[in-house]
Amino acid sequence: MVMMTGSLAVRGTVVWLTPQQGGRVSGPPEPDYDYDYTATAYLPPRTAEDGQAGIALRRFAPGAWRTAAEGILVPGRGNRAQQVIPGCMVVITEGVRPVGLLTVEEVNALAADGTPVAATAPPVATVPPVATVPPVAVVAETPPPAEPPYRHSTASSRWTSKHGSDLQLTE
């Protein structure tokens, strides 16, 4: 789990919205090897107005509606920290108009110079050994309760009464 207070490197799957869904009229972007696709983005529940960040995407299939991608998220000035974890959704916008959805699969913090920050492993909690419990013998027949459990009066009367259907035929 990473809080986006600085730039983050992310990897995931991007799905571009069709023009009918309000996405790009020209379809998915077609970047070349010299340039990355750059746009704005936000992480719900924030909106384009109160949580905008910059995004640059690369290594995705040009013209594909759904493709794997790598990118960098850069928080906007004055925006509060946002939690970015695998499985979260980043809404890619051009201006305030959503044009794509990036499902994050991997997150890495970046230092000010753009190099990855080494993640420290969380401390491993030691779990005490679990004591084994001997098996319990199962009684074949348990006697009916001396007093029926509390129930609505109709249910209680049915519980305590004897009907012909309650009798078992024994041979």
Instruction: Report on the biggest sheet.
Output: 6 strands, antiparallel, barrel
- Beta-sheet strand percentage? 25-35%
Helix content: under 10%
Topology order in helix (H) and strand (E) letters: EEEEEEEEH
**Whole-number average pLDDT?**
77
Distance from first to last alpha carbon: 67 Å
- Give the number of helices: 1
Structural class: mainly beta
Structure keywords:
two-stranded antiparallel ribbon; 8 strands; mainly beta; 171 residues; 1 helix
Write up what this structure looks like.
By secondary structure, the chain is mainly β. It contains 1 helix and 8 strands; from the N terminus they run ββββββββα. The strands form 2 sheets. It has a 6-stranded antiparallel β-barrel. A two-stranded antiparallel sheet has the order 1-6. β4 and β5 (66-75) form a beta hairpin. The longest helix has 8 residues, at 153-160. The relative contact order is 0.21.
